[in-house]
Amino acid sequence: MREPLLPYAVLALSLMGCVSSHFDVVKMSSTEKFAVINIDGRNAYLIDPRTESCFLMTAGGGNHSTVHVPCEKLKRNVPEAATFITWAPSGEAAPTVSAPTP
Predict the structure, then answer these.
(1) Which of 7, 17, 36, 64 would bridge 59 by S-S if both were Cys, CB 3.0 to 4.6 A apart?
(2) Average pLDDT of each block of 10 consecutive residues along the chain (102 residues)?
């Protein structure tokens, strides 16, 4: 009889969380400049015009994380970011998302 795989999957996923992460550095031949807006020394917004992406980076205590943030909202709510986010519409509210009714 086959054993359930769930305990093994949980063990594998928990072990993957213990692997330390690191950054590799690659020098690109030609690219637009990244913009980094420092919030408080531990947190910063990263704006990448090449991929039209915006991220919130956090660091502290040897840990770091990066999460995607909507560029339109960042442009609207953080005046320092507006000059770097040229691809997003100005002055318009971000589109609202509504769930379909069941």
Answers:
(1) 64
(2) 58 54 65 84 92 92 91 93 88 58 64
